[in-house]
Amino acid sequence: MSNIFDYLEWRGDISFDVDPFNEVDNLVLSELAYTCFDGTVPYDGEAVPLSEVRNAYFRKHPRSAIREDSDHIAKAPLLMDGMVSGKRFADTFLTGYVDIVDRDEAVQMAAVTLLLGDGSAFVAFRGTDGTIAGWKEDFRMSYLQETEGQRRAVWYLNETGKRVKRPLRLGGHSKGGNFAVYASAFCDKRIRKRIRGVYTNDGPGFRPEVMETDEYRSILPLVTSIVPDTSVIGMLLTSDVAHRFVKSEASVIAQHDPMTWEVMRNCFVESKPSNLGLFIKNSQKGWLRRLDDSERELFVDTLFSILEAAGVHSLEQLGEKKLKALSDIRSSMKEIPKDKQKEMNRIIAELLHSSSEAAREMLTKKHTNP
Q1: In the CATH hierarchy, which fold is given to the domain comprising 4-274?
Q2: Full-model pTM
Q3: Is 212 exposed, middle or buried (0-12, 13-18, 19+ CB in 10 A)?
Q4: Which of 37, 86, 199, 210 is the most exposed place for a label (fewest CB within 10 A)?
Q5: Is 287 helix (H, G, I), strand (E, B) or coil?
């Protein structure tokens, strides 16, 4: 299987003059946004050449330690080696790095702007990282018309558009893709006119109130949604955008890792939605349809208050100390009021019921259309 690392090795010497910006370029830059550029890329200072950023980063972070980590977020900085060694990205500059995490407000928004050799700028929004605050904000999208992270994304694009006078593309993976679409729709009109394309890579969708706005409708022709064939995150909520399904070497939730997406030359290997992917999509749609906003909010707030009471602030903690973390979570559940425990159990039962309905519907269709 070939992935974005192979793309940089095999196609990195082909300039934008020969082969214009494409969907794989978008994923390379969206994935690079997971890199922590603290101390190397200033928010409002001079743009820094990618080669200098790469050298400064690896002076602090040995490549050997990064390669040992299996997580795609940890491996993101390694993309800089392939980018610097080829013509395509060698003259890229970075600017405008921000990284905002507020546990109390459940906000996680990070972004960086890349000035490319074709005269355009790519605004890359980071997806959900390993923080519980980041994942809580993902869940809050189900009952809030606008999250604080989405507001910050609009702010970032407006400020970047004032400083960077270039044609713009935007993109992001996971929640970063949602931020890219949202910021494009609700930024200043003068900046929106300079947007040439928006990419959401397995990013969640939006609530109906957002999709019904004129601003959202106006940006749709520029949006490309790329999802793996068994997408979970990219099927959350809806988007009114036709998804482009791509092949992944992984299975189920592991397909969310963009480094498992298969690349052929300058595009992804096309696929179609799997039966499991359709089942997951229909299950979550049925569950959300059964719950009103107050019930969704109760579920999210209670779930994350249990995690916080258990001292769990990152997914890494859940992974490293799984048994202790689960034990602490069970203990914390007993501390919440009885009425909330009862309501949580009812909401979980609704999820199971929706899954059963989705399974029956798929079986009925299969027997009706053999």
Answers
A1: Rossmann fold (3.40.50)
A2: 0.85
A3: exposed
A4: 86
A5: helix
